[in-house]
Structure formats: C-alpha cells, structure tokens
C-alpha cells in the first residue's frame, strides 16, 4: 500500500532525522519527501509531505510519529493500493 502523509513539526535541527528514523524502524519505505519551512506570528516549523509504501498498517507509523516531541500534527492525506509484482505472477 502507498500512503501520503502531511506532518507539521516545530523547527528543530534534528526533527527530520527523527521522522525518517521512525519511518524506517516501522518498516516503511520512503518514496518521496517534500519539506517546506513556514514562519508565522505564532510559530515556525516544517511541513513535510511524505509518501511511503509498506504492507504494514499505516497506523503503526502514524501512532509513533505523533509521539515525537517536535511533531505537532500528522494527517493521512492519501491511501492507494499498489499492485504487488508477486500478484502478477499468480
């Protein structure tokens, strides 16, 4: 399954490394990643658009990402089935 997430974080030097580490440790493969820095009157941070694939439930990843200290919000923006190469053989 392919999933797209939008993650809002505080602006900390190592927050991107932590997001990627949790993603890898939960068994998800990063297909694409887009990072946008934002600054407004109340706060500054990053908006991360992350596209991942895995056969594991996406909740395994989202539940861990929201536990990271600098992560403020995680939104599942897209859910898409990806055909497995093994399925074409059978």
UniProtKB/TrEMBL annotation:
Pfam families: ACT_5. This is Acetolactate synthase small subunit. Its EC number is 2.2.1.6. The keyword Transmembrane does not apply. GO terms for molecular function: acetolactate synthase activity. It comes from Agarivorans albus MKT 106. The keyword Transferase applies. Keywords: Transferase. Transmembrane segments: none annotated.
């Amino acid at each position: 399954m392919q999933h797209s997430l939008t993650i809002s974080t505080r602006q900390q030097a190592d927050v991107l490394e932590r997001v990627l580490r949790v993603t890898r440790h939960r068994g998800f493969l990063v297909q694409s990643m887009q990072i946008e820095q934002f600054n407004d009157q109340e706060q500054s941070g990053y908006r991360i658009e992350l596209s991942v694939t895995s056969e594991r439930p996406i909740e395994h990843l989202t539940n861990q990402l929201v536990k990271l200290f600098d992560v403020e919000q995680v939104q599942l923006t897209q859910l898409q089935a990806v055909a497995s190469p093994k399925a074409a053989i059978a």
